[in-house]
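In keeping with the milestone schedule agreed at the kick-off meeting, the structural modelling team has produced records for the first pair of proteins. Each record is given below as a sequence line and a structure-token line. The laboratory manager (R.T.) confirmed that both were archived under the project's standard naming scheme.
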Amino acid sequence: MIKVGVIGAAGKMGKEVVKTVIQEPDMQLVLAVDINNSGDDIGKIVTGENCGVLIESDIKTGLQAAKPDVVIDFTQPAGIFEHVCLYLENRVKSVIGTTGLNDEQIDRIKQLSEKNQTACLIAPNFSTGAVLLMMFAKQAAKYFKNAEIIELHHNQKKDAPSGTAIKTAKLMAQANNDFTFGNCSETELLQGARGANSEANIHIHSVRLPGYIASQEVIFGSDGQLFKIKHDTMSRSCYMDGVMLAVRHVYNKNDFIYGLDNIM
């Protein structure tokens, strides 16, 4: 039985994770941490029925008391680096869904994971469809010299571009070092009009509007044709298969993984 802790348990993604963990036959929810609803039964909040796990407000206290095998963290970007370091220093395996980590922080996490021989899986996106989009974009990048990315999220997402868009650009850049082939010299009349210039000069355009959960489109262009790959998230439940796959992986391994595509 895998003992699981959920950090950010009373948030939108946290509630979905809690509901899924409770239903998994090989998992046991032993810890729920959130800055809100401290002392309340997380089961009552999520399903309407008590599950016996009361919400803790402090992560370190919760880890010491519940001793989870794996923690799942979907909290805010501002504190996620410190959270991951805390898990690894306490030799608690972790699945991280919060984006906003920079390359230097990811490298430091990898080093700490290897030093403590404690598994950590960080994924910009846990939707299997979104991961397939990234894999297909990497393949298509071999055959096109021009491409741009449009990512659309709800207006409560704090980081931009999305981690999924950044990861997609990095994968595409493995096939081509410049996706602006033949473009004319440009002048932005309004700063940022052409989006962020990322890996291999791939322009990423971020949209934030109520109504969206998460969507991404990669557009490839060449003379006489356009090729588009798109993924739309309609419900947060689509992430759960990927999260459970990640939990089972880290439970049985002691490696560091960045990207769900590496275990699919």
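The second protein of the pair:
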Amino acid sequence: MEWKLLTREDYVTTTWSGGTTTQLAIAPEGAVYADRDFLWRLSSATVELDHSDFTPLPDYNRFLSVLEGEIQLKIDADEPVPVAPGKVVAFDGGVPVESWGKCVDFNLMVRKGKAEGAVTVLSSTHPQEGDWTPEAGDLAIYCASGAVRLPEYGLEARAGQTLLCRGFEGGPVRVISEAGLALLASVREG
């Protein structure tokens, strides 16, 4: 088990009909998003259209949070709901999803029946410290703004960087967040 710092040089950015998407990490390593052969994928997308339709991903569950801006999200036949920074919306990637508004978002996509995922938002205007206690699996901490430190491992991520651990054995992780926004994602196979 080892934590790794990922920076913009490690990411892959592509365009989609409504803007750009940046792949922060994918598993297994070497998987290709377009082939839909991945177990999980972390990304951040820029939505530049006032109205857009999400790409159908019927084999995946999705977790979405807004990093900048605000959108209205209509999932399947439900009424649109506002999604602002600090809120995580989980939904089936196979149902129709529409959005209104421009934003920068954060996505975790997890293969149905093969893994389970979770996303927690850590947002503060002042430094805070606490334990994150995920189950065994793959972990990622994306720093959207400010800084996040893992003192036990001597690591720090600044805005736009990701701390990634594949094969975490479970147990508490001490997380110190400087004023800012970070997203903690965990994926457990099974």
